[in-house]
Amino acid sequence: MYSKLVITDAQQAGLAIVIIDPIFAYQIPLTRETSVDTALGDIIRNMVVCALWIPYFLKSERVQATFVR
């Protein structure tokens, strides 16, 4: 009834960019003071949002009825 979750290469690349970008930003002295804390907060917030919405989209009957093939 429910399909298995498949993570595509594009999604893996997007996740890698989101994680690696703050690391590279930290190498720039001017952005080191301002953007790293905000970027870390953004990553954590996005992970929480994904932890809530992904299971909903995978399990919801309403979503299954809306997104038909």
What secondary-structure arrangement, pairings included, does this model have?
Blueprint: H1 9-26, H2 29-32, H3 35-59, H4 61-66
Helix pairs in contact: 1-3
Please provide a written account of the structure:
The protein has helices spanning 9-26, 29-32, 35-59, 61-66. The mean pLDDT is 75. Helix 1 (9-26) packs antiparallel against helix 3 (35-59). It has 69 residues and is an all-alpha fold. It contains 4 helices and no strands. It starts with 8 loop residues before the first helix and ends with a helix.
Low-confidence stretches: none
Oligomer: single chain
Give the overall pLDDT as a whole number: 75
Characterize the largest beta sheet: strand count, sense, and whether it forms a barrel. Answer: none
Write down the overall geometry.
elongated
Approximately how much helix is present in the residues? over 70%
| Number of helices in the DSSP assignment | 4
Order of helices and strands: HHHH
> Could you tell me the number of beta strands?
0
Rounded Rg: 17 Å
What structural class should be given to the helix and strand makeup?
A: mainly alpha
**Fraction in beta strands:** under 5%
State the separation between the terminal residues, measured CA to CA. Answer: 14 Å
